[in-house]
Amino acid sequence: MKAIRLHVIAPLLCLCLVAQGCVALVAGAGVGFLISQQVLPNDVHVAQIRMDADRAWPKVHEALSFFVDPGTELRIQDSPRVARATVGGSKVTVEVETHDTEFTLIRIYAERYFTADSETADEIMETILERLRR
Fold it and tell me: Which of 27, 38, 56, 89 is 20 to 30 Å from 48 by CA-CA measure?
């Protein structure tokens, strides 16, 4: 009888968490990886992850390399950790910064025709986060 109650209560608890806006917490709780994700003014996409920047950095520029326009190159600077590329005609800048010994900040900004390209930045951020989850 207790097992049945647990099966009924657990989904209801998850539903309550999602309803209260804790989607990022629930999504990241399984792996303990994504701490926060937001879009700052000027469409700068920022994610804080629970991973050392030295481990995250190679995966970040590897993920970005899949988006680079043909005929252009990925420009990587290791100190500070900045990668620049042209993606779909947009100039993209990705920064990876050590926030603490176990935490890393990832910032992405994309610009096309002198205006922010939030859609491209969001697509790149999602791909990078998916790559880092593996």
Answer: 89
Nearest alpha-carbon partner for 102 in 42, 54, 57, 62: 54
Count of alpha carbons within 13 angstroms of residue 6, beta-carbon side:
3
Those residues with Cβ within 8 angstroms of residue 59's Cβ, 6 or more apart along the chain or in another chain = 128, 131, 132
Q: For residue range 20-61, what is the model confidence (pLDDT) as tens digits?
A: 333 443 343 444 578 888 888 888 999 999 999 999 999 999
Residue 5 corresponds to which tokens in the numbers above? 């109650």
Cα dist from 126 to 50, 101, 119, whole Å:
16, 23, 11
Backbone φ, ψ for residue 78 (5° rounding): -85, -20
Tokens in use for 103?
């935490």
Domain 32-133 is found in CATH 3.40.190.10 = no
Q: How far apart are the C-alpha atoms of 111 and 87, rounded to whole Å?
A: 10
